[in-house]
UniProtKB/TrEMBL annotation:
Organism, scientific name: Pseudoscardovia suis
Highest taxon, organism lineage: Bacteria
Any Pfam family: DUF3052
InterPro entries, A to Z: DUF3052
Protein name: DUF3052 domain-containing protein
């Protein structure tokens, strides 16, 4: 595997040994990008029927699919992804068939309780948008603060 291939796949935040779940694969996806991820992780991508914990997820999304369906897919996919693990929506670039509106992605992500980052070019025809759950850091800080207060009360 070339250094370029490793670097491009690492930009997703995936690592050797990671199990990555792939959602909404179709014959239009970028097979080269899929191979780069598989080469880096050393594992085949698993499909949406996989039912064990995963180290990351990618969702191939195209315009014309229902925004509510995207929010539902995000929620379904996030159930198996480890907290803080890389979670990506991959869409055709603007001007390509199936390109989607950024507002649609933002709205679906928000409905699913996630923030959508700025799109990044991930291949010649596809952009990737990383999602992160709302408040993960805040929730963790609140838990730690409560634990500290509880610990002090026990003294």
């Amino acid at each position: 595997m070339s250094t370029t291939t490793i670097t491009q796949a690492q930009e997703f935040g995936f690592h050797p040994g990671d199990i990555i779940q792939e959602w909404l694969w179709d014959d239009d996806v970028d097979e080269g990008l899929r191979r780069k991820i598989e080469d880096l992780t050393g594992e085949d991508l698993v499909d949406e029927d996989y039912d064990s914990a995963v180290d990351g997820a990618i969702i191939w999304w195209r315009d014309g699919d229902d925004e509510d369906a995207l929010a539902d897919t995000i929620m379904d996919a996030s159930e198996l992804v480890d907290e803080g693990a890389p979670f990506w929506i991959i869409t055709p670039k603007p001007g390509r068939e199936g390109s989607t509106n950024a507002a649609t992605l933002q709205s679906a992500a928000k409905t699913a309780g996630m923030n959508a980052a700025t799109p990044l070019t991930v291949s010649e025809d596809w952009n990737g948008v990383r999602l992160r759950a709302f408040g993960k850091g805040a929730e963790r800080a609140d838990r730690m603060e409560r634990a500290e207060r509880d610990d002090m009360d026990l003294r």
